Amino acid sequence: MDKPIRKAIFAGSFDPITNGHLDIIYRAAKLFDELQIGVLVNHNKKGLFTLDERVDLIKSCTKELNNIKVIEFQGLLVNYCEANNIGTLVRGVRSEADVNYELQMAHMNKELNSNIETIFLPTNKKYSFVSSSLIKEVLAFGADVENFVPKQVLDVLEIKTK
Ligand code: PNS
User: Fold this and answer.
1) How many domains, in total, are found in the chain?
2) Catalytic residue among 45, 125, 151, 162
3) pLDDT tens digits, residue range 95-125?
4) Closest atom of ligand 1 to CA, residue 105
5) How many whole angstroms from 91 Cα to the centroid of ligand 1?
6) 2 lies in a domain?
């Protein structure tokens, strides 16, 4: 019998993708046969980056990985997983505060679909304070975010802030 393909998803808003996200993606890609990066479609929230920009940026930052698929999803994440044979949700945790919030989500997702597991990967220490929202906040005041986001994001930001 063929071995089943182990598929996982790393989902989020990715507005924008940060070096912290990228670190989790590279590490999680080694653990699974296929890692999907699920970009949340949120019609109620206008992000700094459009959905297409987020997807393109993630694709561009992960092009060296051959087991990555970048997708857009809406609705419940566990429903997307069920429909696409994905058994694991990958989440990065930066701090104790993250653990509390992430545990809540993991328990809710488990209640919604007990076949799907959540695994937590500790974020690389050097990105433990990096989040898309803080990046947007400091950017709004003209701070340099070069150390926190991939070059591809910086390039798009440069065009946006011209
Ligand atoms: O970028 P974030 O805020 O870390 O991502 C959170 C995300 C997108 C993974 C979460 O909000 C989510 O899964 N949303 C889809 C709707 C859903 O399934 N909600 C139930 C979560 S327990």
Assistant:
1) 1
2) 45
3) 999 999 999 999 999 999 999 999 999 999 9
4) 22
5) 10
6) no
